[in-house]
Structure formats: C-alpha cells, structure tokens
Amino acid sequence: MTTHSDTAAALPARSAPPAARYLDIQQVGQTFKTAKGPFTALQDINLQIAQGEFVALIGHSGCGKSTLLNLIAGLTTPTNGVLLCANREIKGPGPERAVVFQNHSLLPWMSCHDNVYLAVERVFGATESRAQLRERTQAALALVGLSHAAGKRPGEISGGMKQRVGIARALSMEPQVLLMDEPFGALDALTRARLQDELLEIVLRTRSTVVMVTHDVDEAVLLADKIVMLTNGPAATIGEVLHVPLARPRQRVALADDPVYLRCRKAVLDFLYTRQAHVEKAA
Ligand SMILES: Nc1ncnc2c1ncn2[C@@H]1O[C@H](COP(=O)(O)OP(=O)(O)OP(=O)(O)O)[C@@H](O)[C@H]1O
C-alpha cells in the first residue's frame, strides 16, 4: 500500500485532538461460501480511521466496498482479522454505528416522523420521555430540512427527500459513526449535489466519523478527508490511501478549478482507470 502523505498541517482543520484509531481494522479478510467453493472477497485490509474523519471507499464494481462497510456496521463478521470501534471489538450492530443505505429502506406505512421516531425510541426510549423523543425526531428532520414533510409517508415524497429521511433517521441516533453505502447513488445530479452540500454542513456540525462507499470520484474528493482505494477483486485489498488536504468548509464551485482538488481527482482517476483498469474476467 502506498500513501500520498501530505503534511499534517495541510489536513483539514477539526477541533480537539480526536482518537487517531477510533475505527481500527486489522488484517481483515472475508471469504464467502458459495456453490462453487470458497470465494475470498477481501484480504489483508488494514485501516485506521480517526474520530471525526470522513473516509470515502472507492473501487470498481464488485471489489468489496459494501462487504467492508457491512463488516464495520457489524452486519457480518470477518473470516480473518479483527475490527475495533473505540478499542472494543465490533461483534454486531450497535447504536454508535448507524447505516444509511442506497435504497433508504423506510417503512412505507409510517410517516417520515414515525420512521425517524422508531430509531430514536430504540436508542433513547429507555431513558427519555416521549416528549423528548419527539423533540429529537423533530430536530433530526429539521437538520435535513424536512420539517414540513414530517406527516407524509415515503410514497408521497421524492427520492431525494426519502434519502434525507434516511439520513435524518441515522443522525437522530446520535451515532459516533455514520456508515453510508452509496447514499446518493440513485439520485439525479442536482439533488445529489444538494444533498452532498447538506451532508458537508451536517458533518461539520455533528463532527461524526463517516465512512461512505461511492463510485463517484468527484463526490469522494469533495467530501472526504481520506480516500481509500480498493484493488479489483477477488481478494481485494487497499491499493492506496489518498489524503485530501482541502480546508473546510468546502464549496463545490470554488473547488472546480482548485489545483489541489484537481490533483486529488487525477490521483483517484489514475488509480481506477490506469492502475486498476477494470478487466472483465471470463466466467
Ligand atoms: N454473501 C455473499 N456470498 C458470496 N459472495 C458475495 C457475498 N457478498 C458479496 N459477495 C461477492 O463479494 C464481492 C464483493 O461484493 P461487494 O458487494 O462488497 O462489492 P462492491 O464493491 O460493493 O460492489 P458494487 O460497487 O457493485 O456495489 C463480489 O464479487 C460479490 O459477488
């Protein structure tokens, strides 16, 4: 693994020294049992993510990005190695790690308010009154600009709004870690850009640690502190980690011709399309 090591001083400013190994992924491998025999999706994954860091996972389709995210979420367990969150082994899902999926997975018969309330109740229901839970729910919806749609059901709102409800639901749990699997993948370009900007603002305010799977090079450079590039599978591993030394807050229009932005973008494109050019293997 090579690292583009920009100076620490050039890294984005965030307050208070965060835990440098908040998420610690050590020698992780994942082998699936399949009808054709064992299939090794991931191998020798070593990655440390600091508290408050925004990490983008990028790589060609099928390389193992979701597999890695699911391991961090605790939805699956690794065949090799260990994953730690705040020095504790990840052994299953936990309220400190919330997941936002591409298909927002809202319950269609419940209002946006109730979809969020359900998550709030699960995390805080034992210790807080209903009024407090409702307050948390309303605050989360306000955070993503959806107070006006609280009473609507998922079928009555747009795809972008549904995705914002999914993000509100995840944020309402006050997770230490926000795990996002191509959260904007299904959206049109304009909605996607708006949600990216909103996410930048929210993350700046909440100081959450974020791991986001994406296929989009511009999204990765715009949002991330660190871009983790996976090699092609099978047995995918981390090919390169690129630090993105762009100060925050970040403005997409100003970045369009920023030399640092362009250099980072080129480095990722180079990795994906030159060094890891996707070759379809014969079945
Ligand atoms: N439960 C499973 N059983 C067998 N193979 C699996 C399983 N889950 C994933 N795989 C395989 O592991 C590899 C990595 O899959 P994964 O979904 O993590 O890739 P990805 O990088 O997220 O892909 P995409 O970008 O297309 O979403 C693929 O070859 C996939 O077919």
Automatic annotation (TrEMBL):
Topology of the protein relative to the lipid bilayer: Peripheral membrane protein
Pfam family, one: ABC_tran
A molecular-function term among this protein's GO annotations: nitrate transmembrane transporter activity
GO CC, one annotated term: plasma membrane
KW Nucleus (keyword) present: no
Domain ABC transporter: 20-257
InterPro entries, sorted: AAA+_ATPase, ABC_transporter-like_ATP-bd, ABC_transporter-like_CS, ABC_transporter_ATP-bind, NO3_transporter_ATP-bd-like, P-loop_NTPase
Compartments (UniProt record): Cell membrane
Key words of the record: ATP-binding, Cell membrane, Membrane, Nucleotide-binding, Transport
Family to which the UniProt record says this protein belongs: Belongs to the ABC transporter superfamily.
Name recorded for this polypeptide: ABC transporter ATP-binding protein
Taxonomic lineage: Bacteria, Pseudomonadati, Pseudomonadota, Betaproteobacteria, Burkholderiales
